[in-house]
Amino acid sequence: MSTVGYDYNLTRTLDAPVDKVWSAWTIADIYGTWASAEDVVLDVRPGGAWSSVMVIPGGTRVPLSGGYTEVVENKRLVMSMNVPGGDEPVLMAVDLAAQGERTQISLSQTFDTAENRDQAEQGSNFLLDGLTAYLATA
């Protein structure tokens, strides 16, 4: 990720083992459940692609796609995302750290503008809220 720009880093501790959190990010049916996404396709490997249609509150459907640039099982995913209206894909890093039966997760991204960063950070908080709720019942 670029070191110039506007970044965010969100960190939470989840009440689930790291392998369960990893599966939530890498198995299409599970991802769709907690991420409010439809038509999810995940090819989780370096060079693999992903796509989904995010259903945001209010029912708006947003098609998203991208690829995987780094995959380290149960530790790290770095994904590119083709942002509507953007010139280049944006990278998002998902870092996992096992803490016994719990997992620390960190999401981070860097953007060219504060507005884009703020929108992405809000979306990532929404994702983490969905993941937390899913793990509490799974």
From TrEMBL:
Gene3D superfamilies: 3.30.530.20. It comes from the Bacteria. This is ATPase. SUPFAM superfamilies: Bet v1-like. Residues 15-135 form the Activator of Hsp90 ATPase homologue 1/2-like C-terminal domain. Belongs to the AHA1 family. It comes from Planotetraspora thailandica. It holds the Pfam family AHSA1.
